[in-house]
Write a structure and sequence with these properties.
CATH superfamily: Bira Bifunctional Protein, Domain 2
GO molecular function, one term: ATP binding
Pfam family, one: tRNA-synt_2
CATH class: Alpha Beta
Structural class: alpha+beta
Distance between the termini: 24 Å
EC number: 6.1.1.22
Shape: globular
CATH topology: BirA Bifunctional Protein, domain 2
Organism: Pseudo-nitzschia multistriata
Protein name: asparagine--tRNA ligase
Largest sheet: 8 strands, mixed
Order of helices and strands: HEEHEEEEHEEHHHEHHEEEHHEH
Helix content: 25-40%
Strand content: 15-25%
Length: 351
């Protein structure tokens, strides 16, 4: 399946870019530990060559916060001379290549230090991240829909024996569900309308819901996503135009919605919930600087990212697709840990 996905990218003139495994930035830690970032990344894994087992040897510097003083590790003495982390996304770097080369994509390992003991999360997984120059949010949704349908159609045509096995032992409606996905257009619904539908349904019996409090600004949970995809629409569905307060600084403000939302989207599918997350990127320098200020990000740490806007910016969009989550959907399996050879998750890294 990965071979078919990547060959399709090549056939459509997408250039594959090698993905960096580590990221360097002093405020990147703040950025990726915030409310929302790089299509939903969480806490980071720190990379260091310092001898953390020997605390007396660690280079420390004192920082003052109010009346208190704290000792922190002096990252300037570390291998790279600044904090380094395992990557949570190839997106920001991908934007630099898309600005020069047009349509590109990255495919490689991604690391999230989230304490999520769920059937949908891994600490290490693989992500496909296309980035398209001269593309808006509609273009990103069209590309994601076409690509997903192409891959699923290939599986239906080429893996009949495998699908019969999964349909027998895991999901009896698997083949029918996949055939439905490739045969009909994906639904598109705004975030505002999605919230309205959820509020109407939850009001019937709030006790049936784990998270019954839903309003504008709510970050949709898995139960909300699956209800929209499985019950409300019985289809793959794009939810778009999310509140900017719950999304990342690089997402383009939606000027047609009183500045309350950004051009972001999530693709929700039955049985899984979110499969794809993406956005149109903010290409306007002054607007981007203002958004960074709102999230307490230091522009000096993103000088290269800002230079993309300062010297010849173009509209561009992209998205990320978690490959193991795609495998769970196509195979009808319930736990993402069965979709990778050596799953790593909180408290478990045997191999």
């Amino acid at each position: 399946m990965s071979r078919r996905y990547l060959s399709t990218c090549k056939e459509t003139s997408f250039v594959r870019i090698s993905k960096d495994v580590s990221s360097l930035a002093s405020s990147y830690e703040h950025y990726c530990s915030g409310r929302e970032n790089c299509e939903g990344a969480g806490e980071l894994f720190r990379v260091t060559t310092l001898d953390i087992d020997n605390k007396s040897s660690l280079p420390l510097v004192k920082t003052e916060e109010g009346k208190s003083t704290t000792d922190i590790v002096d990252s300037s003495q570390d291998f790279f001379g600044k904090p380094a982390y395992l990557t949570v996304s190839g997106q920001l770097g991908g934007e630099t290549y898309a600005s020069a080369m047009g349509d590109i994509y990255t495919f490689g390992p991604t690391f999230r230090a989230e304490n999520s003991q769920t059937t949908r999360h891994l600490a290490e997984f693989h992500m496909v991240e296309p980035e398209m120059a001269f593309a808006d949010l509609d273009s990103a949704m069209e590309n994601a829909e076409d690509m997903l349908k192409y891959v699923v159609k290939h599986v239906l045509d080429s893996c009949e024996e495998d699908l019969a096995f999964f349909g027998k032992f895991y999901d009896k409606g698997l083949i029918k569900r996949l055939e439905k996905l490739v045969s009909q257009p994906f639904v598109r619904v705004s975030y505002r309308d999605a919230i309205k539908y959820l509020q109407e349904e939850i009001a019937k019996d709030p006790s049936k819901w784990q998270f019954p409090d839903v309003e504008f600004g709510t970050d949709l949970s898995t139960e909300h996503e699956r209800w929209l995809a499985e019950t409300k629409f019985d289809s793959a569905v794009f939810v778009y135009n999310y509140p900017k307060e719950i999304k990342a600084f690089y997402m383009r403000d939606n000027e047609e919605d009183d500045g309350e939302t950004v051009n972001a989207m999530d693709l929700l599918v039955p049985g899984v919930g979110e499969l794809v997350g993406g956005s149109q990127r903010e290409e306007r320098l002054e607007t981007l600087l203002e958004k960074m200020g709102d999230q307490d990000l230091d522009p000096e740490d993103y000088w290269w990212y800002l230079d993309l806007r300062r010297f010849g910016s173009v509209p561009h969009s992209g998205y990320g697709l978690g490959f193991e989550r795609l495998v769970t959907y196509v195979c009808g399996i319930e736990n993402i840990r069965e979709a990778i050879a050596f799953p790593r998750y909180p408290g478990h890294a045997e191999f």
